[in-house]
Amino acid sequence: MPHKLSKGKGPVLLIAGILLIAATLRGTITGIGPILDFVSQTLNLSATQAGMLTTLPLLAFAIFSPISSGLARKVGLEPSLMLALVLMTIGVIVRSAGSTTMLFLGTCIIGVGIAIGNVLLPSLLKRDFPTQVPTLTAVYVLVMGIGSTISSSVAIPLFYLSDKLHITAIPNWAFSLAGIIIFPVIAILVWLPQLNRHTRPSADTADIDSHSYLWRSAAAWQVTIFLGINSFIMYIFISWLPSILTHNGYTENQAGYIEGILQFSTAVPALVLIPLMVKMKDKRGISVVMALLTFIGIIGLLFAPEHAVIWVVCIGFGCGGGFILGLSLVGIRTHNAQQAAVLSGMAQCMGYLLAATGPIVFGFLHERTGSWYAPLLMVSSFCIILIVLALFAGRSHVIVRTKDGKDIVIDDTKKQIESY
């Protein structure tokens, strides 16, 4: 049965568990950005290999997201989310062993855990708190940003703390990554009471009708590519921003804190956009603004790096807002929960596959050119594509399929229902 926010300790504990899982989903992968140079130097990784450390979780998202709902149908939502937390914990331990093999293996395991959590948490919110979804979504995204901010900000201090404590069993960078284990461990402890429940996902996750025609729909691909390019840009900066900053004269500590500002800036749009979007039928204008903010941030970082904090806030707000808009478009452009679930799976699968190439391509360009100029110009060109794409993806037109099998796009909701 759905919970109400104001009654009983059970819902409060459930919400606490949801928010701790949200913090873990982002916090376990963002802590590596500030210490990526140290990891690369110690293990002799190329820039392309270093980019893979951000890419591997994205590939795991794309591969394992489609099977997560099947897992929840068999064992229940709550045990499946506990499995996600356990996998992330194991991944953090393996990743911190200190070797190249274990680093990549642990990163893959973390990615699988995050993929399960990414898919099932929204379904849990919709099932248990159907009337508070916008509010809890805003808080959920904000907590994800806080988790990633903490993870990025403490990475360098933990790195140097290893020397002060004279830890020699594992490298400094491994100790820094191991510190992130506090996220999944606390989440596991708070989530334990939920294991008494073995409930199924909400209908939009569990029972997905066949909507394969979406893969042939131009409107569906507009939403998918919008999300993909937005994530492509975001994960490049999650991976490489500290390296760009240290190259421009910032200390490792400063770069780590600015990376934390980037992470927090991606969460802030949730508080602004979610209540605003309810009043806006057409999302093209706001989508263009978010893409334009990202473009301004990248150009500013390229030509005036001494004001990096300003530009990083622009990039974080633009990409974070673009991500929220992209997810909302999945619901806006579809006519029922089943079609929305299929479009969401399509957008996340293909979007994350596109995003996975970002850190690798960016690192490869840097390696080939020996500077950050060409890679940043490349990303800015993708922003221009994103701005143009926003004019199409942000429309309020709903994708429907008529009884004769033809795909049409109708703007008016009443007419759309009648046609369907």
UniProtKB/TrEMBL annotation:
The keyword DNA damage does not apply. The chain crosses the membrane at residues 12-36, 48-67, 79-97, 103-125, 137-161, 173-192, 213-241, 261-278, 285-303, 309-330, 342-366, 372-393. Pfam families: MFS_1 (PF07690). InterPro entries: MFS, MFS_Cyanate_Porter, MFS_dom, MFS_trans_sf. GO terms for molecular function: transmembrane transporter activity. Residues 12-398 form the Major facilitator superfamily (MFS) profile domain. Signal peptide: none annotated. The keyword tRNA processing does not apply. Keywords: Membrane, Transmembrane, Transmembrane helix. Gene3D superfamilies: MFS general substrate transporter like domains (1.20.1250.20). This is MFS transporter. It comes from Photobacterium kishitanii.
